[in-house]
Design goal:
Blueprint lengths: L1 E11 L4 E12 L4 E5 L6 H8 L7 E6 L2 E4 L7 H9 L1 E5 L10 H7 L8 H14 L15 H12 L6 E5 L7 H18 L2 E6 L2 H7 L2 E6 L2 E7 H6 L4 H11 L1 H10 L1 H4 L5 E9 L11 H5 L2 E12 L2 E11 L2 H13 L3 E7 L4
Parallel strand pairs: 3-8, 3-9, 6-7, 7-8
Antiparallel strand pairs: 1-2, 1-4, 4-5, 9-10, 11-13, 11-14, 12-13
The structure holds adenosine-5'-diphosphate (ADP) and magnesium ion.
Protein backbone atom coordinates (compact mmCIF):
# COMPACT_ATOMS: atom_id res chain seq x y z
CA UNK A 1 0.00 0.00 0.00
CA UNK A 2 2.85 2.37 0.88
CA UNK A 3 6.12 1.79 -0.90
CA UNK A 4 9.12 3.96 -0.20
CA UNK A 5 12.17 3.32 -2.31
CA UNK A 6 15.61 4.81 -1.61
CA UNK A 7 14.32 7.89 0.14
CA UNK A 8 16.80 10.59 1.14
CA UNK A 9 15.87 13.80 2.90
CA UNK A 10 18.61 16.37 3.22
CA UNK A 11 18.12 19.74 4.88
CA UNK A 12 20.39 22.58 3.88
CA UNK A 13 21.00 25.14 6.55
CA UNK A 14 23.28 28.16 6.37
CA UNK A 15 26.45 26.39 7.32
CA UNK A 16 25.62 22.73 7.32
CA UNK A 17 23.60 20.06 5.66
CA UNK A 18 21.59 17.58 7.72
CA UNK A 19 20.89 14.19 6.23
CA UNK A 20 17.75 13.41 8.20
CA UNK A 21 16.76 10.34 6.17
CA UNK A 22 19.29 8.23 4.30
CA UNK A 23 18.41 5.67 1.65
CA UNK A 24 15.32 4.32 3.37
CA UNK A 25 13.23 1.72 1.56
CA UNK A 26 10.20 0.08 3.11
CA UNK A 27 6.84 -1.41 2.27
CA UNK A 28 3.73 -1.13 4.37
CA UNK A 29 0.83 -3.41 3.51
CA UNK A 30 -2.84 -2.60 3.72
CA UNK A 31 -4.13 -3.31 7.22
CA UNK A 32 -0.68 -3.22 8.82
CA UNK A 33 0.00 -1.52 12.08
CA UNK A 34 3.54 -0.60 11.20
CA UNK A 35 5.77 0.60 14.02
CA UNK A 36 8.77 2.82 13.39
CA UNK A 37 11.00 3.07 16.46
CA UNK A 38 14.14 5.03 17.13
CA UNK A 39 15.55 7.57 19.51
CA UNK A 40 14.91 11.27 19.17
CA UNK A 41 16.58 12.67 16.06
CA UNK A 42 16.66 9.35 14.23
CA UNK A 43 14.59 10.76 11.36
CA UNK A 44 11.21 9.17 12.13
CA UNK A 45 9.10 12.30 11.86
CA UNK A 46 10.86 13.43 8.71
CA UNK A 47 10.24 10.02 7.14
CA UNK A 48 6.51 10.05 7.86
CA UNK A 49 6.23 13.60 6.63
CA UNK A 50 7.47 12.17 3.36
CA UNK A 51 4.70 9.56 3.47
CA UNK A 52 2.00 12.17 3.92
CA UNK A 53 3.64 14.39 1.34
CA UNK A 54 4.35 17.30 3.66
CA UNK A 55 8.05 16.84 3.08
CA UNK A 56 9.49 16.47 -0.39
CA UNK A 57 12.31 13.92 -0.45
CA UNK A 58 15.68 14.86 -1.95
CA UNK A 59 15.74 11.53 -3.73
CA UNK A 60 13.64 8.40 -4.03
CA UNK A 61 10.25 7.13 -5.10
CA UNK A 62 6.97 7.17 -3.17
CA UNK A 63 4.23 4.85 -4.33
CA UNK A 64 0.85 4.74 -2.61
CA UNK A 65 -1.78 2.26 -3.73
CA UNK A 66 0.28 1.38 -6.81
CA UNK A 67 0.30 5.01 -7.90
CA UNK A 68 3.67 6.73 -8.08
CA UNK A 69 3.17 9.91 -6.09
CA UNK A 70 6.66 11.15 -6.34
CA UNK A 71 9.90 10.36 -8.10
CA UNK A 72 12.35 12.36 -10.17
CA UNK A 73 9.84 12.53 -13.03
CA UNK A 74 6.41 12.55 -11.41
CA UNK A 75 5.31 15.49 -9.34
CA UNK A 76 1.66 15.87 -8.42
CA UNK A 77 -0.15 19.12 -8.96
CA UNK A 78 -1.40 21.09 -5.98
CA UNK A 79 -4.93 19.72 -6.19
CA UNK A 80 -3.76 16.14 -6.70
CA UNK A 81 -1.53 16.56 -3.71
CA UNK A 82 -4.39 17.82 -1.56
CA UNK A 83 -6.51 14.84 -2.58
CA UNK A 84 -3.69 12.44 -1.74
CA UNK A 85 -3.15 14.11 1.63
CA UNK A 86 -6.81 13.64 2.44
CA UNK A 87 -6.26 9.90 2.17
CA UNK A 88 -3.79 10.14 5.03
CA UNK A 89 -4.80 11.22 8.53
CA UNK A 90 -2.32 12.23 11.16
CA UNK A 91 -2.21 12.51 14.95
CA UNK A 92 0.53 14.01 17.11
CA UNK A 93 1.94 14.05 20.61
CA UNK A 94 0.42 17.43 21.48
CA UNK A 95 -2.96 16.83 19.80
CA UNK A 96 -2.85 20.16 17.88
CA UNK A 97 -6.50 20.99 18.58
CA UNK A 98 -7.85 24.48 18.19
CA UNK A 99 -8.46 25.77 21.69
CA UNK A 100 -11.25 28.21 20.80
CA UNK A 101 -13.32 25.44 19.21
CA UNK A 102 -15.37 22.69 20.84
CA UNK A 103 -14.63 19.02 20.21
CA UNK A 104 -17.40 18.98 17.64
CA UNK A 105 -16.10 22.09 15.88
CA UNK A 106 -12.57 20.72 15.82
CA UNK A 107 -13.76 17.62 13.99
CA UNK A 108 -16.10 19.58 11.70
CA UNK A 109 -13.22 21.86 10.70
CA UNK A 110 -11.59 18.94 8.86
CA UNK A 111 -14.75 18.63 6.73
CA UNK A 112 -14.52 22.20 5.45
CA UNK A 113 -13.66 21.13 1.90
CA UNK A 114 -15.63 17.90 1.93
CA UNK A 115 -18.59 19.21 -0.06
CA UNK A 116 -21.02 17.79 2.48
CA UNK A 117 -24.14 19.74 3.43
CA UNK A 118 -24.44 21.24 6.89
CA UNK A 119 -26.73 18.43 8.02
CA UNK A 120 -24.46 15.75 6.56
CA UNK A 121 -21.49 17.28 8.33
CA UNK A 122 -23.33 17.32 11.63
CA UNK A 123 -24.29 13.70 11.20
CA UNK A 124 -20.74 12.70 10.27
CA UNK A 125 -19.15 14.55 13.18
CA UNK A 126 -21.56 12.82 15.56
CA UNK A 127 -20.65 9.46 14.05
CA UNK A 128 -16.92 10.17 14.36
CA UNK A 129 -17.19 11.26 17.97
CA UNK A 130 -19.18 8.14 18.70
CA UNK A 131 -16.51 6.03 17.00
CA UNK A 132 -13.86 7.35 19.39
CA UNK A 133 -16.16 7.09 22.42
CA UNK A 134 -16.61 10.81 22.98
CA UNK A 135 -20.25 11.53 22.10
CA UNK A 136 -20.94 13.07 25.49
CA UNK A 137 -18.08 15.57 25.14
CA UNK A 138 -19.05 17.13 21.81
CA UNK A 139 -19.66 20.55 23.33
CA UNK A 140 -16.52 20.67 25.47
CA UNK A 141 -13.50 22.82 24.67
CA UNK A 142 -10.04 21.23 24.69
CA UNK A 143 -9.24 22.86 28.05
CA UNK A 144 -12.17 20.91 29.53
CA UNK A 145 -10.86 17.57 28.28
CA UNK A 146 -8.23 15.17 29.62
CA UNK A 147 -5.20 14.27 27.51
CA UNK A 148 -6.75 11.00 26.42
CA UNK A 149 -9.99 12.74 25.47
CA UNK A 150 -8.10 15.39 23.50
CA UNK A 151 -6.30 12.65 21.58
CA UNK A 152 -9.68 11.03 20.86
CA UNK A 153 -10.91 14.29 19.35
CA UNK A 154 -7.72 14.45 17.29
CA UNK A 155 -8.30 10.88 16.09
CA UNK A 156 -11.90 11.69 15.11
CA UNK A 157 -10.63 14.73 13.22
CA UNK A 158 -7.92 12.68 11.50
CA UNK A 159 -10.55 10.20 10.32
CA UNK A 160 -13.00 12.85 9.08
CA UNK A 161 -12.10 12.46 5.41
CA UNK A 162 -12.15 8.64 5.56
CA UNK A 163 -8.40 8.21 5.12
CA UNK A 164 -6.95 4.84 4.24
CA UNK A 165 -3.86 5.52 6.29
CA UNK A 166 -3.46 6.98 9.77
CA UNK A 167 -0.05 8.22 10.85
CA UNK A 168 0.53 8.48 14.57
CA UNK A 169 3.65 10.47 15.48
CA UNK A 170 4.30 9.83 19.18
CA UNK A 171 0.57 10.21 19.81
CA UNK A 172 0.74 8.63 23.26
CA UNK A 173 4.00 10.20 24.44
CA UNK A 174 2.25 12.88 26.48
CA UNK A 175 -0.19 10.43 28.09
CA UNK A 176 0.03 8.38 31.27
CA UNK A 177 0.43 4.59 30.96
CA UNK A 178 -3.23 3.77 31.51
CA UNK A 179 -4.46 6.34 29.00
CA UNK A 180 -1.77 5.16 26.59
CA UNK A 181 -3.20 1.64 26.74
CA UNK A 182 -6.70 2.97 26.07
CA UNK A 183 -5.62 5.00 23.06
CA UNK A 184 -3.63 2.05 21.68
CA UNK A 185 -6.69 -0.16 22.13
CA UNK A 186 -8.74 2.38 20.18
CA UNK A 187 -6.18 2.44 17.36
CA UNK A 188 -6.21 -1.35 17.21
CA UNK A 189 -10.01 -1.33 17.11
CA UNK A 190 -10.03 1.20 14.26
CA UNK A 191 -7.46 -0.90 12.42
CA UNK A 192 -9.70 -3.95 12.67
CA UNK A 193 -13.07 -2.27 12.22
CA UNK A 194 -12.19 0.08 9.36
CA UNK A 195 -9.28 -1.83 7.84
CA UNK A 196 -7.25 1.29 8.54
CA UNK A 197 -3.51 1.03 7.86
CA UNK A 198 -1.63 2.64 10.73
CA UNK A 199 1.94 3.94 10.80
CA UNK A 200 3.00 4.24 14.39
CA UNK A 201 6.02 6.36 15.24
CA UNK A 202 7.36 5.87 18.74
CA UNK A 203 10.51 5.79 20.85
CA UNK A 204 9.01 2.99 22.99
CA UNK A 205 9.21 -0.63 21.91
CA UNK A 206 6.47 -1.44 24.44
CA UNK A 207 3.99 0.37 22.20
CA UNK A 208 5.08 -1.56 19.14
CA UNK A 209 4.77 -4.77 21.11
CA UNK A 210 1.25 -3.92 22.19
CA UNK A 211 -0.36 -3.36 18.81
CA UNK A 212 1.97 -3.46 15.80
CA UNK A 213 2.44 -6.39 13.45
CA UNK A 214 5.55 -5.08 11.74
CA UNK A 215 8.34 -2.84 12.92
CA UNK A 216 11.26 -0.88 11.52
CA UNK A 217 14.11 0.47 13.62
CA UNK A 218 15.75 3.78 12.66
CA UNK A 219 19.11 5.13 13.70
CA UNK A 220 20.85 8.26 12.35
CA UNK A 221 18.52 8.49 9.37
CA UNK A 222 19.02 4.86 8.38
CA UNK A 223 16.54 2.05 8.63
CA UNK A 224 18.72 -0.54 10.33
CA UNK A 225 16.33 -3.44 10.84
CA UNK A 226 12.83 -4.35 9.70
CA UNK A 227 10.50 -7.30 10.04
CA UNK A 228 7.47 -8.84 11.70
CA UNK A 229 7.12 -7.96 15.37
CA UNK A 230 7.39 -11.63 16.21
CA UNK A 231 10.68 -12.06 14.31
CA UNK A 232 12.21 -8.86 15.60
CA UNK A 233 11.31 -9.64 19.22
CA UNK A 234 12.43 -13.24 19.10
CA UNK A 235 15.51 -12.70 16.98
CA UNK A 236 16.76 -9.09 16.97
CA UNK A 237 19.99 -8.68 15.02
CA UNK A 238 21.16 -5.13 15.62
CA UNK A 239 22.43 -3.94 18.98
CA UNK A 240 20.05 -0.98 19.06
CA UNK A 241 17.10 -3.27 18.39
CA UNK A 242 18.22 -5.53 21.22
CA UNK A 243 18.43 -2.51 23.54
CA UNK A 244 14.93 -1.40 22.62
CA UNK A 245 13.56 -4.87 23.23
CA UNK A 246 15.21 -5.28 26.61
CA UNK A 247 13.47 -2.18 27.85
CA UNK A 248 10.17 -3.60 26.63
CA UNK A 249 10.38 -7.05 28.20
CA UNK A 250 11.90 -6.43 31.63
CA UNK A 251 14.12 -9.50 31.36
CA UNK A 252 17.31 -7.55 32.04
CA UNK A 253 15.98 -6.13 35.28
CA UNK A 254 14.76 -9.55 36.36
CA UNK A 255 18.12 -11.08 35.58
CA UNK A 256 20.04 -8.43 37.49
CA UNK A 257 17.89 -9.09 40.56
CA UNK A 258 18.10 -12.85 40.23
CA UNK A 259 21.89 -12.77 39.96
CA UNK A 260 22.02 -11.09 43.35
CA UNK A 261 20.15 -13.92 45.03
CA UNK A 262 22.27 -16.28 47.09
CA UNK A 263 21.02 -19.45 45.39
CA UNK A 264 22.40 -18.07 42.14
CA UNK A 265 25.56 -16.53 43.58
CA UNK A 266 26.40 -19.90 45.10
CA UNK A 267 24.81 -22.06 42.43
CA UNK A 268 25.49 -25.64 43.47
CA UNK A 269 27.59 -27.97 41.36
CA UNK A 270 24.66 -30.00 40.05
CA UNK A 271 22.69 -26.94 38.93
CA UNK A 272 22.54 -24.84 35.81
CA UNK A 273 20.86 -21.46 35.34
CA UNK A 274 19.20 -21.15 31.94
CA UNK A 275 17.13 -18.68 29.97
CA UNK A 276 14.36 -20.23 27.90
CA UNK A 277 12.64 -18.41 25.06
CA UNK A 278 9.82 -19.81 23.04
CA UNK A 279 7.25 -18.60 20.54
CA UNK A 280 4.00 -20.00 19.32
CA UNK A 281 2.91 -23.55 19.81
CA UNK A 282 5.53 -24.65 22.28
CA UNK A 283 3.79 -22.52 24.89
CA UNK A 284 0.67 -24.64 24.59
CA UNK A 285 2.56 -27.67 25.84
CA UNK A 286 3.45 -27.72 29.48
CA UNK A 287 7.09 -27.09 28.77
CA UNK A 288 8.73 -28.11 31.98
CA UNK A 289 6.22 -30.77 32.95
CA UNK A 290 7.70 -34.17 32.48
CA UNK A 291 11.30 -32.97 32.77
CA UNK A 292 11.42 -34.25 36.32
CA UNK A 293 9.75 -37.51 35.42
CA UNK A 294 11.81 -38.14 32.31
CA UNK A 295 15.23 -37.07 33.54
CA UNK A 296 14.93 -36.78 37.29
CA UNK A 297 15.94 -33.14 36.89
CA UNK A 298 14.29 -30.54 39.10
CA UNK A 299 13.14 -27.26 37.59
CA UNK A 300 12.89 -24.13 39.64
CA UNK A 301 11.31 -21.20 37.78
CA UNK A 302 12.73 -17.87 39.01
CA UNK A 303 11.08 -15.63 36.45
CA UNK A 304 8.50 -16.08 33.76
CA UNK A 305 6.84 -13.75 31.31
CA UNK A 306 4.46 -14.39 28.46
CA UNK A 307 3.59 -11.76 25.89
CA UNK A 308 1.17 -11.94 23.03
CA UNK A 309 2.89 -10.55 19.96
CA UNK A 310 0.69 -10.17 16.92
CA UNK A 311 -1.56 -12.89 18.37
CA UNK A 312 1.30 -15.32 19.01
CA UNK A 313 2.29 -16.13 22.59
CA UNK A 314 5.98 -15.55 23.25
CA UNK A 315 7.49 -16.56 26.54
CA UNK A 316 10.69 -16.11 28.49
CA UNK A 317 11.66 -18.01 31.59
CA UNK A 318 14.67 -18.03 33.85
CA UNK A 319 15.00 -21.50 35.34
CA UNK A 320 17.41 -23.42 37.55
CA UNK A 321 17.79 -27.04 36.46
CA UNK A 322 19.20 -29.38 39.09
CA UNK A 323 20.21 -33.02 38.75
CA UNK A 324 23.03 -35.27 37.67
CA UNK A 325 25.24 -33.56 35.12
CA UNK A 326 24.45 -35.81 32.15
CA UNK A 327 20.76 -35.78 33.04
CA UNK A 328 20.73 -31.97 33.06
CA UNK A 329 22.46 -32.10 29.69
CA UNK A 330 19.81 -34.47 28.35
CA UNK A 331 17.00 -32.32 29.75
CA UNK A 332 18.43 -29.26 27.99
CA UNK A 333 18.60 -31.17 24.71
CA UNK A 334 14.99 -32.28 25.15
CA UNK A 335 13.85 -28.73 25.84
CA UNK A 336 15.65 -27.51 22.76
CA UNK A 337 13.90 -30.17 20.72
CA UNK A 338 10.59 -28.57 21.69
CA UNK A 339 11.68 -25.52 19.66
CA UNK A 340 12.75 -23.60 22.70
CA UNK A 341 15.84 -21.38 22.57
CA UNK A 342 17.97 -22.21 25.55
CA UNK A 343 20.86 -20.07 26.79
CA UNK A 344 23.05 -21.18 29.67
CA UNK A 345 23.47 -18.20 31.97
CA UNK A 346 25.55 -19.90 34.65
CA UNK A 347 26.94 -23.31 35.52
CA UNK A 348 27.11 -24.39 39.15
CA UNK A 349 30.64 -24.63 40.58
CA UNK A 350 31.97 -27.20 42.98
CA UNK A 351 32.29 -25.69 46.41
N1 LIG B 1 12.90 21.29 8.80
C1 LIG B 1 14.11 20.89 9.22
N2 LIG B 1 15.22 21.63 8.97
C2 LIG B 1 16.42 21.21 9.39
N3 LIG B 1 16.66 20.08 10.07
C3 LIG B 1 15.62 19.32 10.37
C4 LIG B 1 14.28 19.67 9.97
N4 LIG B 1 13.41 18.70 10.40
C5 LIG B 1 14.20 17.80 11.05
N5 LIG B 1 15.50 18.16 11.03
C6 LIG B 1 16.62 17.38 11.58
O1 LIG B 1 16.56 16.08 11.04
C7 LIG B 1 16.94 15.11 12.02
C8 LIG B 1 15.82 14.11 12.21
O2 LIG B 1 14.72 14.73 12.87
P1 LIG B 1 13.31 14.05 13.10
O3 LIG B 1 12.85 13.47 11.82
O4 LIG B 1 12.43 15.04 13.76
O5 LIG B 1 13.70 12.88 14.09
P2 LIG B 1 12.76 12.04 15.10
O6 LIG B 1 11.35 12.25 14.73
O7 LIG B 1 13.23 10.63 14.95
O8 LIG B 1 13.07 12.56 16.47
C9 LIG B 1 17.28 15.89 13.27
O9 LIG B 1 18.67 16.09 13.30
C10 LIG B 1 16.54 17.19 13.08
O10 LIG B 1 17.19 18.22 13.77
MG1 LIG C 1 9.80 13.00 15.87
Amino acid sequence: MIDLSHIDVTFHQKKRTIEAVKDVSLQINKGDIYGIVGYSGAGKSTLVRVVNLLQEPSRGTITIDKQVIYDNKVKLSGSQLRQQRRDIGMIFQHFNLMSQMTAEQNVAFALKHSGLSKAEKKEKVARLLDLVGLSDRAQNYPSQLSGGQKQRVAIARALANDPKILISDESTSALDPKTTKQILALLKELNEKLGLTIVLITHEMQIVKDIANRVAVMQNGHLIEEGSVLDIFTNPKEELTQDFIKTATGIDEALAKIKQQSIIKDLSANSRLVLLKYAGNSTDEPLLNGIYKRFNVETNILYGNIEILDNVPVGEMIVVLSGEKDKVEAACAAIEEMDVQITVLKEGQKA
